[in-house]
Amino acid sequence: MSGGTQYVVAAYAVIWVILVLYIVAMGLRTARLAREAELLLRLLDDRDAAGTRDEAAGVGH
Question: For a FRET experiment, which of 2, 4, 16, 24 has its CA 20 to 30 Å from that of 40?
Answer without folding.
Answer: 24
